[in-house]
């Protein structure tokens, strides 16, 4: 029997006596769940390693944003220069232009993707199984293509001399265009390319959410004489509200990080289109390629990450104030 010291209470003694057994039981329970979910953990391993290697380990390199990196002095030996690397971007004449493009395109992509993907998901829910499989496959295939491949498809359409789009305009006796030397058409081209490639994946995400809704709600609505529109607006959308809000919060965090592949390969990195196609990512890449300033590119990447984090936290805070159950955290 354990002795009770002058300063130790009876509850403390009982906790001390029972702790080893409880800890052992807890370890057995944890091992049981690990063993039970071993297949799922095995499936998780490649994604976790990818996230670790490309997202977490490179975070050590953020120190280069505050250094004048030189290859001969190395990672730690380079001179500390504070915020000088950030000045390259902020004092640039194009800073406002590329920031406007980055944020503007990000907002348009987010809003249109959400609206169109939800619409397609609701329409797919009304299809028969045969046509549903065909539409799922057709919509998801573009998502698997790289922007390099898509850029060649765009070139086949937009080439000034042999492009299909100019050939169609010629057929209808309309004025042809030098697409890669103009600025005005590119917002529409880039938005169309983005939606064509990414809308299928977002649609399937929302469609999977619709499949998780209890079908009894729809059956009860049919008995009450509800129309398809009423079921979509009164059942489907409210049930998907949490999923929609979570995806929107995550999308808001990427507003300040543009799609490099889209804005670099589709316009073919043509300087004539920069006023309407250039974003922060392509601007920094060209600066890195021309000047080789690793510190500057790291500084802009860090700046984008911090702004994205602030946007996510702010959006989640606003959502939590409105409806706590729909917030991300």
Automatic annotation (TrEMBL):
Keyword hit for Transport: yes
GO cellular component: plasma membrane
Highest rank taxon of the organism: Bacteria
Annotated InterPro entries: ABC_transporter_permease (IPR051393), MetI-like (IPR000515), MetI-like_sf (IPR035906)
Membrane topology: Multi-pass membrane protein
Gene3D superfamilies: MetI-like
Keywords: Cell membrane, Membrane, Transmembrane, Transmembrane helix, Transport
Any single GO BP term: transmembrane transport
Membrane-spanning ranges: 40-66, 103-125, 137-158, 188-214, 235-257, 300-319
Subcellular location: Cell membrane
Family, per entry: Belongs to the binding-protein-dependent transport system permease family.
Name of the protein this chain belongs to: Putative aldouronate transport system permease protein
Native organism: Cohnella lupini
